[in-house]
């Protein structure tokens, strides 16, 4: 009888499906595995769907959390990850970071409006790199808008934390902060801001009557021409297991044309050639348009 019980137990173990790991994914928006037309400008959501759909041995559970809350969860729990993050030295020290980025996109640019700032910008030589530090130390009075749910990288974060008295820092918190910041800029309540060009132009299209001549933008030396949004996980043994699975998954997906196509869907056709170049550089691929 004991042998029969042992044999049945062994057979059950062999035929029973392996229990899936659970990955808790912290996101600013409640993501869905179903694509919708509203997501056409949501590159992080679109790449997440490819990452999470039909992932053998992995169950993904969404936790709605802004960036600050997501980082708190990564510190408090051992099984949480979050995506599309610019990596700073502090984040590398506090969290596990994916080997490859989840997303690749053109870097943020400086946007200014108003007579004094646009004149200052036009006076800067086009052939040389523009420094944000030179603008912030120009003595021009301005309201500088920032997205409180975002790190701009070590160099820019440091500059924004040590502003002169002539500069008022306006911080946009909460949901929809990217759109809210662009709204404030276009309404003239913010004089300068940093934003990704695709995000800026996406929301600017909602205001066709705004005078285009009042806005000027330039790349700045403190921010990269192209950026990668990486995945971060809890710095724990469980987090290491999840990150190993994420790294393996990204290595496979990034070599597939559909992962590039999701990126291209998010950008205007005029940028597609640059996006392919950025993508090939980051992922070691050789795709063409």
Automatic annotation (TrEMBL):
Signal peptide: 1-20
Record flagged with keyword Signal: yes
Keywords from the UniProt entry: Signal
Descriptive protein name: Solute-binding protein family 3/N-terminal domain-containing protein
